[in-house]
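Researcher: Here's a chain I'd like modeled. Treat it as a single chain, no partners, no ligands.
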Amino acid sequence: MRRILRPGGLFVLHVHNRWSNAWLPQARSWLVWNLLTAWLSRREAGDKRFDYCGARDFYLHLFTKSELARDLRKAGFLIREMIPLAPDSSGPLGRPWLFGRLRAGGWIVVCGALESCL
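Model: Modeled as a single isolated chain. Structure tokens:
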């Protein structure tokens, strides 16, 4: 995206929050297993594969807020806005200052290319 973004253009991205799985009973075991196997194998946690709407072996990476910000900076983006979403993604998260990194279902992020933002 960075390569094809026009000067002054914006890149809008939606990602899922890894920690949102802690609040879903059916996903807690995946979260614990994923964190444990990532730690044991010394790889990054958050990768999930599952069948979804007829797509077999669907791949999804769930981010932490700091991981997302780090990856966007490394790719040459400047974050202009990071909007935490309600767990059901129905809108912005209420009271994001109250453990928003853990409670958010994900984020909508608005970025610009680093050099065009300076």
